[in-house]
Amino acid sequence: MESTEGVRRATAERVRDTRERLAVERDMWVATAHPEHGPHQVPLWFAWDGRAVWMCTDAASVTARNVRAEPRVRLSLPDTYDVVLLQGEAECFPDQEAPADGARALADTFGWDPRGEEGSFVYVRVVPRTVRAWRGERELRGRVVMRDGAWLA
């Protein structure tokens, strides 16, 4: 991997850029694993509330089943050059019991409110414990920008 940019960003700049991307991006890869059935990865819409990632999926989906069995997840934004990886534990809320702020964040972002749909959905909240961000090979060192739930800069 080779960087096309000659300047390595400082941690504070990486944190700022990561927060900005979380506020404007729409899609995120969600990687879960079931203790007996192994890994599963899907793209989902998400909303960032400044502290947590909010997603919604069908209550019977593989993602929902996996998170109930094993809440540790990895999330990633889709760009493979400007990498942002989040790690944390997911918490599920049945659609009719979802905290209003999380449900509203998704509804405001996408114009879709699963609480009014037929069928059962779950809202999934992930408060990241670790975030890694880098652009190209030059930024591999120092890529951790959040540790133990606290931004480093």
UniProtKB/TrEMBL annotation:
Secretion signal span: none
Sections of the chain in a coiled coil: none
Tagged with keyword Oxidoreductase: yes
UniProt domain Pyridoxamine 5'-phosphate oxidase N-terminal: residue ranges: 19-134
Domain of life: Bacteria
Pfam families for the chain: PNPOx_N (PF01243)
Keywords on record: Oxidoreductase
UniProt-recorded name of the protein: Pyridoxamine 5'-phosphate oxidase N-terminal domain-containing protein
Organism: Streptomyces similanensis
